[in-house]
Amino acid sequence: MTEEIAFVAFYQKENIYSFNALIGAIEIDEDLKDIVIYYVRGKQDLFKELREIKKKHQLVVLGISFFTTQLWEINTLVKALRKEFSQKIIIIAGGPHPTGDPLGTLLMGFDLVVVGEGEETICDLLKTMKNDKDFDQVKGIGYLSSEGEYNYTGKRAIIDLDMFPPFPLINTQFGAIEITRGCPYICYYCQTPYIMGTQPRHRSVAAICKYVKIMKRENLTDIRFISPNAFSYGSKDGKTIDIKKVEELLLNVRKIINKSGRLFFGSFPSEVRPEHVTKDTIELILKFADNDNIIIGAQSGSQRMLDLCHREHSIEDVINAVEISVDAGLKINVDFIFGLPNENEDDIKKTIEMMEIITKKGAKIHTHAFIPLPQTPFARKKATPINEKFKKVISDLNSRGLAFGEWKKQEKLAIKISQYLRQIRRL
């Protein structure tokens, strides 16, 4: 006898946090207790697993979450899935790229796209399928009509993070705990505020500690957080630091994991903004956390470029952050993006000077190439090869152990993505 519905998560390292949140939401929905969850971790296993899963279930729903940088490999995958399974499985897309480019994603061969946050949307979709109703009444999805026209069912209200677990507890997958969603800084190259909103929402200290205690019972005491800006935790506007709330969080988590556990804050995946690096915030890391480094975003050494990107911080903020961190005994990694739109020779010169200044002070440079992303103000800006002056300096810094990153790989992808996003219709 076949069971009713299977939800299959294509569980890649790039999207584990997204699926942890989605499956955690499915698990707590009383109407979805009979949904069977599967994780499939690799492309080679996906087809084999789907064949077996299809034998056991009346309906198989495959979820694929992906970034724009994964576009071509996912496109190839979906076309192969359609060739083998045709319409015998439902394939749903979600995540940063599908949210930013829903029509292009549907044209790749997906049945539905989840636009924006997925916790409530995926639950409503599965209940609609379970009850054999029309999914066009489900808010937050995009689909193609029988005539090939794009339909969007409308924006869904934002969620309260405390109402949902950060990871699954039945189909167990532990991981980093999302503490903040949304970002008030509308950087023109970044998708976060356009997908998650500009009003920050924080998971409460009590809710965070609940899941830390669960991890502790499983002897998982390396605690990491997900946040667009760790030092903004608890802040109403996301720009003003609430130092008491940050301390409350770190103090209570430390009490749970004790000295035997490790707490990471301000390092991946919870970087911080440069102007929020102060003696007070660094003191909290030294007092409660175990990371020996923090990560900040500078992105450019030209104030003109920072203003054009809508960064809302200064060159001096970056230098101050480096000095404060290094003086406190912390390593500091500083993100730079090369090839930003409208960058001129003077901007390049100032960025090179800036990198030389902060590396002499003890910073390391994390190198990135500008990649246009859908739904951002820079989405249709042309990506160009990295300037030779940058390449020479990066090479020198790399040879001295003062720089790292995958800018070369990103540079090639950026040009392809730029061409793709400038098309009227997609792949």
Can you put this structure into words, describing what you see?
This protein is α/β, with parallel strands linked by helices and 427 residues long. It has a domain at 3-152: Cobalamin-binding domain (Rossmann fold). 40% of the residues lie in helices and 17% in strands. The chain has 15 helices and 17 strands. The strands form 5 sheets. It has a 7-stranded mixed sheet, with helices on both faces. The radius of gyration is 22 Å and the shape is globular. The protein starts with a strand and ends in a 6-residue tail after the last helix. The model has no long low-confidence stretch (mean pLDDT 95).
Helix and strand arrangement:
Layout: E1 3-10, H1 16-28, E2 36-40, H2 43-56, E3 57-65, H3 71-85, E4 90-94, H4 96-100, H5 102-107, E5 112-114, H6 119-130, E6 141-144, E7 150-152, E8 177-178, E9 180-181, H7 192-196, E10 201-202, H8 205-217, E11 222-223, E12 225-226, H9 243-257, E13 262-263, H10 279-288, E14 293-299, H11 303-308, H12 315-327, E15 331-338, H13 345-360, E16 364-369, H14 388-399, E17 403-405, H15 407-421
Parallel strand pairs: 1-2, 1-3, 3-4, 4-5, 8-12, 11-13, 14-15, 15-16, 16-17
Antiparallel strand pairs: 5-6, 6-7, 9-10
Helix pairs in contact: 1-6, 8-9, 9-10
